[in-house]
Amino acid sequence: MIPTLMPTYGRSDIAFERGEGVYLYATDGRRYLDFAAGIAVNSLGHAHPHLVKALQDQAARLWHTSNMYTIPEQQRLADRLVGASFADTVFFCNSGVEAIEGGIKLCRRYHHAGGNPGKWRIVTFDGAFHGRSLAALAAANNPKYLDGFGPKVDGFDQVAFNNMNEVRNAIGDDTAAILIEPVQGEGGIRTADIEFMRALRKVCDEFGLLLFLDEVQCGMGRTGKLFAHEWADIRPDVVASAKGIGSGFPLGAILATEDAARGMKPGVHGTTYGGNQLAMTVGNAVMDVMLAGGFMEHVREMGESLRGRLEAIVRMFPEIFKGVRGAGLILGLECVPTVADLVGVLRGQGLLTVPAGENVMRILPPLIVQQTHIDEAARILETVAANWKSKS
Hints:
The protein is globular and about 65 Å long. By secondary structure, it is an alpha/beta fold. The protein has helices at residues 37-40, 49-59, 72-83, 96-113, 134-140, 143-146, 164-170, 194-207, 277-290, 295-316, 339-348, 371-391; strands at 16-20, 23-26, 31-34, 89-93, 121-125, 156-159, 175-180, 183-184, 190-191, 210-214, 238-241, 252-256, 321-327, 330-335, 351-352, 354-356, 360-363. The chain has two domains: 16-34 and 294-391, Aspartate Aminotransferase, domain 1; 50-290, Aspartate Aminotransferase, domain 2 (3-Layer(aba) Sandwich), CATH 3.40.640.10. The two termini are 40 Å apart. The strands form four sheets. The chain has a seven-stranded mixed β-sheet, with helices on both faces. It has a four-stranded mixed β-sheet with strand order 1-2-3-15. Helix 2 runs antiparallel to helix 9 and helix 10 (295-316) runs parallel beside helix 12.
């Protein structure tokens, strides 16, 4: 008999009842060091006092009115995101996959508005993950996730990651955009080369394409800048954001330049819940923290420290770990044993991590992590690796 909760996840038996900073507390009272952060979602940790206060105050006033009315909190967050980024305009939604879907529509609509409706296909990359909707699954082209869902949605041409020759060969008269994650999360913390990102910008300019970046996981401070593409010093046309932008509250956003959004007029796209008062209040509270002086410097400092500790662990235990990938506080450990087994043992020792493709363990602590937390995580990793080595 099917359970009342649809069995689409292989859940752990652990249930958490509260969180504080970088820690989660289970119903049995046990404390866990959270270096998963809800898969890069809880950017400011758990129960951040500024976010809690802002949400409580707003919840007592007004939750939702729909986008048929002006929402001042929405305008404020849009202004702040535009002021801190490449963008000229923002559309708010509820999740990363909604931001991706809306971004795909925006790219197609851009060419339609420019008199080129035949330009509708998008170049994507192997190892990508853009969400679970039918179009997002087709864009990523992962057979495991596509299995059983009928004909694949058309409109996507996948090429090798970091391979400009394949990108150029895939561009045709019907190409509208290039969609890429600057750091692939689900795909195994694979980082796009800086020069590759710059070359993508140039080829988009050359062929009149939009550069569409999926920064759902790697954006909102995770690499030590508000958005990961800033390291390449380029200006994209469209960016999908979510996860860390709400630090645990459902929130997504499509950021775009004025030119890229030229086709987005009243009636062509919409959302019932997106941009409501609760989400916007939390989003603004997140921006209060992230835009404060020294915040990004702290992320970069902690990222360098964590990477150094992980690299030392790789040198100590080459039988267990092969290398470190990533940037800032979106890091990955390449594993020798099956990553799911290692993640399970680490969880048993009180450290939460996330498996990813290519047998990689994602290390995604909240951006407020401190050196003492990094030291604690390193000690657990060293203990588990030593025990694993002794048993093998």
